[in-house]
Amino acid sequence: MSDGIPIEITGLTKRFGAVTAVEDLSFTVEPGRVTGFLGPNGAGKTTTLRVLLGLERPTAGTATFGGAVYRDLPRPLETVGAALDAAFHPGRTARNHLRVVATAAGIRASRVGEVLEQVGMSEFASRRVGGFSLGMRQRLALATTLLGDPRVLVLDEPINGLDPEGIRWIRGFLQSLAREGRTVLVSSHLLSEVQQSVDEVVIISRGRLVRSGSLSSLELDASPRTVVDGPDRPRLAAALDQAGLEYTDGRGGFIVAEPDTGVVGHAAFLGGVELSSLHPLKSGLEDSFLALVGEGGE
Amino acid sequence: MVRSIGAEFQKVLTTRMWWLLAIVLVGYVALLSGGFGAFLGWTVENPDAAAAAGGNTTLPPGIDLAPLLYSFASSIGYVFPVLLGALAVTSEFRHRTLTTTFLAQPHRGTVLSGKFASQLVVGAAFGVIGFATSVGTGAAALAAFDLETGLGATDTWALVGRGILAMALWGAIGVGLGALVPNQVAAIVIVIAFTQFVEPILRIAASLNDVTASIGRFLPGAASDALVGASFYGIASPGASEALEWWQGGLVLFGIALVTTIIGGLTTWRRDVS
C-alpha cells in the first residue's frame, strides 16, 4: 500500500428546499485509522457521504479524496470502495452482481472470486440476492467495495443487520484494512456499535460537527457522578438541597453531579438521613456521546 | 464507454426479464402471423365459403400477403424492445441500484449512452427473434394453402432487415422513455397504453382527414411501419396512403429515441440519488 489518501470535507452545506441537512461541516479523515462517523438518525451522515461520493450535489463547500472530487478520480473503484445501502437487483446472483460492477469499472473478472472468498460468501455466489438476509447483503456490499482493492473505504452503517459473529468479524476486518494504511470511514448512529473498532470519531448532530478527535479524548469527557438513595426520598432531597448539590431523579436513586461520594455522604450525615446506597456512577462513552449530540439537538 | 456498454449487456443477460419477454414475443407473433396467415389463406382458397360465413374480408384484390404477415414481428412486436429498454432504466431506480452504477461510473452521461447503445443491440436481437417467428409461421401458413411465400424475393428480406432496424430503434426509444419516466409502473403503463390503445386510435382518427393524416404519419408506430414497409394498419386504414419513405420513418424513430434520451438525461438522470 503506497501513500494513503485522506478524506477532506470543507465547509460542506447541503439543503433540500427549506431543509438544511448538513451545514458548514468540515473535518478530515486520516489514512491508517478507522474513523467512526457518528450521529443520531437524521443528523446528516448519509447526506454527507452521498455528497462525498458524487451522488448528490453540495449546496456549498467541497468533499474530496486527497483533493479530488469523486467524479474526477481516474479509476474511482480502485481508489474508493463505498457501501451506502445494500441494494441489489433481487434477480441477479451475488457473483453476477459483482461481475457487472467489475465490468463497468474495468476491474479484472478474477477479482470477483477473490472478494467473495474474502467476505466468506463463496458458497452463496450462485444464489439470487433476492433470497439474502440483511447480513448477507451487507457482506455482498462489502465485497463490492473491495473489488478495486481501494485505498479508501466508506461504509454507511455496515454493522446493521449483522449477527454477533458477523459483528466480531467486521471489527477485525476493518482494523486489518486500516493497518494496511487504508483510510476507513464507518458511519453509525450508535457509538457502542463501533466503539470497539474505531480509533477516531467524528460526531455530528443536526448537520453540524459537534466533535472530532480520538476515541480516548471522548472518554475524558465522561464526568463521573454519584448515585445516592435512602428510604426517605424527600428528606434526602432536602439534605442535598441544603448542601447545594445538583441532582436528578433516577431509578436507582438520585444522580448527583458530584464525583466524590464522600461529599454526598457528608451531606446526608448533616441532614441526618438514612442511606440505603451510595456509589459512584461510571458514565460510559455512550453517555458522553449522547450528551454531545443532545447539545446540538433539542 | 465500452465498459458501460459491456456492463449494460451483462445487466440484461443476468436477469430473467429478457427471455420472459422474448418468449411472449414469439408466442404473440406466432399466433398472429401463423393464425392470421392460415385464416387469410383459407379465405383466399375458399372465397365462397368465407362470404357465406359472413367473413367478407376487406382485403383488396392483388395484395401481397407475405409482407403483411411477416411485418407482424415489428408492427405488433415493437412493444417488447420498448419495454426492455424502459426497464433497463427504471429498474435501476426501482431497485435503488443507481448508487452502485454511479459509483462504478460517475460520469452519468456515459452510463446512459451505454444503455442506449446496448438496447439498440438488444432490440435488434428481438427483431431477429420476432422476424424468425413471423417468417417461419407466416410462410408455413401460406405454403399450406399453396400461396406465394415470397421467401425467394429480395424485397422480402429487405423488409426483414428494415424490420430488425426498427426493433433496434424501439429498444433505444425505451431507454429514452425510461429516462423521462423513471417510475417503473408508470413507464410500463405508458408503454402498454400508448402502443396498444392511444396510437392505434390516433392513427385511425388521423387518417380520416388529409391534414391530420399528414401529421399522423409522424406518429412513432406509423413511422415504424413506414420504415418496415408493410403493416396491417395499411389495410385497416387505406386512406392513409401517404406514408413516409422508409428512411424518413427510420429518422423519425431515431429522432424520438435521441430526443427523449437527451431530455431524460438532462433532467431525471442528473438528480440527486438518495
Count of folded domains of chain B: 1
SS-derived structural category of chain B: mainly alpha
Q: How far do the termini of chain A sit from each other?
A: 44 Å
Which percent band covers the strand fraction of chain A?
25-35%
Widest sheet of chain A: strand order?
5-6-7-3-8-9
- Name the helix and strand elements of chain B from N-terminus to C-terminus, one letter apiece: HHHHHHHHHHHHHH
What does this structure look like?
The complex is a heterodimer of chains A (298) and B (274). In chain A, 34% of the residues lie in helices and 26% in strands. With 298 residues, chain A is of the alpha/beta class. In chain A, helix 2 crosses helix 3. The radius of gyration of chain A is 24 Å and the shape is elongated. Chain A starts with 6 loop residues before the first strand and ends with a helix. Helix content of chain B is 76%, strand content 0%. The model of chain B has no long low-confidence stretch (mean pLDDT 88). The longest helix of chain B has 37 residues. Chain B has one domain. Chain B: This is ABC transporter permease.
Secondary-structure blueprint:
The complex is a heterodimer of chains A (298) and B (274).
Chain A: E1 7-16, E2 19-29, E3 34-38, H1 45-52, E4 60-65, E5 80-83, H2 94-105, H3 110-118, H4 134-146, E6 152-156, H5 164-179, E7 183-188, H6 191-194, E8 200-205, E9 208-214, H7 215-221, E10 225-229, H8 233-242, E11 247-250, E12 253-256, H9 261-271, E13 277-281, H10 285-296
Parallel strand pairs in A: 3-7, 3-8, 5-6, 6-7
Antiparallel strand pairs in A: 1-2, 1-4, 8-9, 10-12, 10-13, 11-12
Helix pairs in contact in A: 2-3, 3-4, 8-9
Chain B: H1 2-13, H2 17-45, H3 47-52, H4 65-70, H5 72-75, H6 79-94, H7 98-104, H8 108-144, H9 154-180, H10 184-206, H11 210-216, H12 220-228, H13 233-236, H14 246-266
Helix pairs in contact in B: 1-8, 2-8, 6-8, 6-9, 6-10, 8-9, 9-12, 9-14, 10-11, 12-14
